[in-house]
Amino acid sequence: MEILEIIGGILILIGSAFLFLGALGILRMPDVYNRLQAGTKATTLGAMSLIIGVGFLEPSWMMKSIIIVVFIAFSNPISSHALARAMYKRKRYPIIKSEDKDMDAYIEVFQQEEEEVKS
Amino acid sequence: MKNTIVILLLATIGYYLGTIFFGIGFGDAHFANGVKDTYLALTTSELKVANTVTSIVVNFRGFDTLGEVTVLFLAATALGGILYKKRHAVGERTVLFPASSIVKSGAKLIFPAIVLLGAYVFIHGHLSPGGGFQGGTIIATGFLLMLLAYDNFSVNHNVLSFIESFAGIFFVAFGLAGLLISGTFLENFMPVGTMNDLFSGGVIPIIYILVGFKVAAELTGVIYTVLHEKD
């Protein structure tokens, strides 16, 4: 009983830390892609570990929390993929500070594809 | 002459409305204790419903809920009527970029789960937070997800309006049955069972399931109409 509570508490602590870092990243990062990266990865892991921790604290809820975790594992990456893809298709490219560096490796491939679609 | 008559009529109506309103006495002890305590006591003793909000919304204030459902129905119908001439044909709406295959297969996976969650929320409306309106809205978001992912996804409007009319008619029918059997419109006339059971609370779960179906059908129709608007 004690061990389950300790494991649950640690998992909830990890989850809250990741959620806090995700929120901080959304505030701090400069453009959409960096914010998505901070938001999605941190909140996916944070929410999963928090909910599993709640399942450890209250063992009768374990099944429900596993179902919720599976749902988050499906929905959260897909939604952020859709957001990033929409931004890329609307030509909001990442912010690049130094001019000699090309941070977007796919920009030529994408432009070629777009011309092929148009022609 | 005409203006004078209008002013006199308005003054008369205003006088009588004013006397009624000033006679009510808001904030009296009657309002502070009477209604609230009656509701709270009857919810657990007579209706055996765990969720007090549900018992108030569906049983004590059931007539108001019927009005809300009617307002939603009217709003959906009026939206459909206004946008009728500006709509695209089925499966021909303009999409800026089609959704990627990840979104499509993900939507296919998640859609049944969303509908199941909505059904759970309105079936358990008398036991846990939630109810017909909330569950119906969740189901409508599932249809919104499918409409966003698949640009040729379409819902059958005949089925939607059938569900709407069916649920509305049965809501009123249950109300009239209460009027005939127990003496008051929407009065509970079925056995209440034991508290915290799925089959308890008399007509409350049945009416909330009907409301859930009705709200889901109406909001799906609204989403479908708005997405098929021509610019």
Please give the count of helices of chain A.
Answer: 4
Number of strands of chain A: 0
If you average the pLDDT of chain B, what whole number results? 86
Shape of chain A: elongated
> Approximately how much helix is present in the residues of chain A?
over 70%
Helical fraction of chain B = over 70%
Q: What is the radius of gyration of chain B?
A: 23 Å
Shape of chain B: flat
Low-pLDDT residue intervals, each spanning 5 or more residues of chain B: none
The overall pLDDT average of chain A reads 85
By helix and strand content of chain A, what is the structural category? mainly alpha
Question: How is the biggest beta sheet of chain B arranged?
Answer: none
Number of strands of chain B: 0
What share of residues are in beta strands of chain A?
under 5%
Distance between the termini of chain A: 67 Å
Describe this protein's structure.
The complex is a heterodimer of chains A (119) and B (231). By secondary structure, chain A is mostly helical. Chain A has one domain. Helices cover 78% and strands 0% of the residues of chain A. Chain A has helices at residues 2-28, 32-57, 62-89, 107-118. In chain A, helix 1 packs antiparallel against helix 2 and helix 2 runs antiparallel to helix 3 (62-89). The longest helix of chain A is centred in the middle third of the chain and has 28 residues, at 62-89. The radius of gyration of chain A is 19 Å and the shape is elongated. The mean pLDDT of chain A is 85. Chain B is mainly α and 231 residues long. Chain B has one domain. Chain B contains 8 helices and no strands. Chain B has helices spanning 2-24, 29-47, 52-60, 62-82, 101-123, 132-149, 157-181, 204-227. In chain B, helix 3 (52-60) packs across helix 4 (62-82), helix 5 (101-123) runs antiparallel to helix 8 and helix 7 (157-181) packs antiparallel against helix 8. Chain B is flat and about 65 Å long. In chain B, 29% of the residues are buried.
